[in-house]
Model the fold of this input.
Amino acid sequence: MNKFEAGKFKLIKGYKPFSPAFINQEIEWQTPELNLLLQDANTLLGKLNAYSHLVPDIDFFIQMYAAKEATTSNRIEGTRTTFDEALDNEENILPEKYDDWQEVQNYITALNQSIDELNALPLSLRLLKNAHKTLLQGVRGRHKAPGEIRKTQNWIGGSSLQDAFFIPPEPNELPELLSDLEKFLHNQDLLIPDLIKAGIAHYQFETIHPFLDGNGRVGRLLIILYLVDRGLLDKPVLYISDFFEKNRNSYYDALSMVKTSNNIDQWLRFFLKGVADTAKDSIHKFNMITALRKECEQKVQSLGRKAKTRLELLNFLYSKPNINAKMIEDKFKLSTPASNKLIAEFVEIGILKEKTGFKRNRYFVFEDYLKIFRD
Done:
């Protein structure tokens, strides 16, 4: 096994791009604490995966996890869309917030699209390029070659190459670096645990910075896709971007430290702690969802006979917690009076709350459910 070497800085025409070393090889990590962190992260990830099988109708909740991941991953990049706004309908979004909202919607679409594509495609550069194209569709960055590997030099921080905080490798290095990353992801002969590989792959992708824009979001998406592709998760229920966003300075510092001192251990400690904390939080949320679901089903049953449509509406709320009467009419093929009656019943038993204060064009929220994901 080889001690990790990140690469080297080059001096080219007054600026210093970083040229990463290849990673498709056995890599040694030297901190004993990593083994304990790896054990903890693997155990909690296994429990989380088991929970995702125990919760009925898990796909209803997956959409909420996708929205949470999308909101926090985009917030790291500077968007200001809240979790509630991410779940809201387009007509309710203020014009000054629309661009940020659309970027979050694109991330949700890219995540769902990529998970579906894993059924037919390997986790590959092609799949990541598809995700990138979706991410930049019609938003800021749409003129920065969506879905295409950059052909020009980019940089992070500063106003130019001369005062940049970090300069990724030159464009002519990208084909070999990306090929090496793909081989690393699929090389089953390497004696490297999957979670360690996920952490190294994320670091390497962010260092390569292969796109002109959107690299952070694609790199964090890569973590989820790798865990699903390797079977550590059967469903995308680990939104680690929330941990990265809450510890943003440590996130950037740990990534930077690898390049400046070859210290991959510090980054892997941070990454594994993030996986463990996020998995533990997700398990806690599943427990809260299960308890809330039982409580809400009892409330619906208390309304008496003909509970079938009411229970169907309750299930619908788990993936669409912001609704209006028209949405219920369209979803369940009901008349306007019947739809309004359903809403009134759910308000009366405390499942829905009206949030606009209007007499017309009213929207209702499943507030107790949203609280679980906000906290």
Notes: Residues 264-301 form the longest helix (38 residues). The longest strand covers residues 7-9. The mean pLDDT is 91.
